[in-house]
Amino acid sequence: MRYFILSQSLATMAGSVSFPFYLLFIKNIGSNFSSFGFAYGLFTLSSALFHRWIGAASDKIGSRKFLIGYAWGMAFLFLLIPEVDTLTGVYVMQVALGFLGAVQKTCEKTMAGEIFHGEGAGRKIGHYHFWTSLFASFAVFATGVLIDFFTISFIFYIGSFLFAGSGIALLFFEQKKEVHKAEEDVSA
Q1: Which domains does the chain have, with CATH numbers?
Q2: Contacts of 154 (CB under 8 A, 6+ apart)
Q3: Considering the entire predicted model, what is its pTM?
Q4: What is the pLDDT of residues 35-44, one digit of tens each?
Q5: According to the model, what pLDDT value does residue 186 have?
Q6: Cα-Cα-Cα-Cα dihedral sign, residues 26, 28, 29, 34
Q7: 3-state secondary structure labels for all residues of 138-155
Q8: At what angle do helices 33-61 and 87-115 cross, to 10 degrees?
Q9: What is the pLDDT of residues 68-97, one digit of tens each?
Q10: What is the C-alpha to C-alpha distance for residues 4 and 108, in angstroms, rounded to an integer?
């Protein structure tokens, strides 16, 4: 359970570090804020379209593998974001981010459901959300300080590093062992 919490905390932290600066990134391309509305609409639409497929595929392939792909996919995209210099590039990026967002949203829930089931699930879920939210808050506070010393591109590179760490943490997660351990914790 620890590696799952660590992984998702790092992913939440990476998203929290970068999201406030995505608006500034789009503005720096020379576009207006209404373009952000369209870009975000593409993100949510592509996410919605991918959810059903991802849900079915995660049942066959496994949520852990999808979450590793999500983490490393986001790490790669965050390296590319500073290189995007057209609004069309932003829109293409939004579709890719929508796909990966759907992977995260669906597979985090399915994996959490597999781990945090049965008696005591509420306590475990509360523990999980405490840590992921705590990491996110640290990221937001730290980013507020870091942005005075670094460029927006550097903030995305930090996010890429955190997403890569999320994927690495999931490599150490052994689901069968963790589910068995969670069952022992409940019976104790």
Answers
A1: 2-178 (1.20.1250.20)
A2: 146
A3: 0.81
A4: 777 888 888 9
A5: 46
A6: positive
A7: HHHHHHHHHCCCCCHHHH
A8: 40
A9: 999 999 999 999 988 888 888 888 998 999
A10: 9
